Amino acid sequence: MPFVATRAGRVFYEQRGSGRPIVMLPATLHDHRDFDPVAARFASRYRTIAVDWPGHGRSDEPDPAQCVSASLLAGVLADLVDDLDLGPAVLVGNSVGGYAASRLALDRPAAVAGLVLVNAGGFSRQTVLSRTACALLGRPAVTRRVLPHLVRAYLRPVNDHDRAVAERVRARARTVEGARTAAALWRSFTTPAFDLRADGPRLTVPTLLTWGTRDVLLPLKAGRQTHAVLPGARFHPFATGHVVFASDPDGFTALVEPFLDTVFQTSPPDPRPPTASLPQGPAGPRDLS
């Protein structure tokens, strides 16, 4: 199985297709399989790479002494992009994955051809209610009891795929390791490093901002606030929950494919020679299993 060695241990990724790269980054306690319906379609024209964060999916459990945070995930993304030697990529980031994608685009814009942000964190205002929720869910014992019941409320599953997504997240949240990882991430959401609002105007790469309006964690109000601090972004709401591409893969693909065409037509290709034939499916050029 393909893994990349990162500052937080080995990270799993699933690669499909070939061509210009698209990197897909999931939400807290979610994994690369969330993207299956859209990754399969994009892979007909592009090299798609769907990632499991540390402590998620098939990736290694982080060292308990190493506190998992949104900032750590952004660093892991930088490690992965460097290791795979991708050249400018389009990053598709959901929730904390959107934060990590935006952080990389801010810190290293030459590595990012464009952003597709899906109910992304980091750009909306914290309230007393949101800080209280983060503090409560920042306790592993609370996360283990509460998060499994919260999943359906924020996902609003409508098809077999996103119902499977919900069951995977619920099962992971019930484990000691999953609750510990999720709680650490929730605690990081109230830190100064997670607040990207002042940096929004510096985000100059082409950006498509999509938002599931039925999400109770990051509701439409948060989407409007995010759009307000990303003035160059195009905003498109969907009548879904937190994981738009799982609930409405047809609508998401129809919106994103023209964006990808435009980005890759205007972004110069990587001048480095292409990698020799890349295996399809869950194989890849780096296997550390």
Task: Compute the number of strand runs.
Answer: 8
User: How far is it from the N-terminal to the C-terminal residue, by CA?
Assistant: 6 Å
The SS-based structural class is alpha/beta
Q: What is the N-to-C order of secondary-structure elements (H for helix, E for strand)? A: EEEHEHEHEHHHHEHEHH
Mean pLDDT across every amino acid position? 92
Q: pLDDT below 50 for ≥5 consecutive residues: which ranges?
A: 273-289
DSSP helical segment count = 10
Tell me the overall shape.
globular
Helix content: 40-55%
Structure explained in plain terms:
The chain is α/β, with parallel strands linked by helices. The protein contains 10 helices and 8 strands. The protein has an 8-stranded mixed sheet, with helices on both faces. α2 packs across α3 and α5 runs antiparallel to α6 (160-173). The termini are close together.
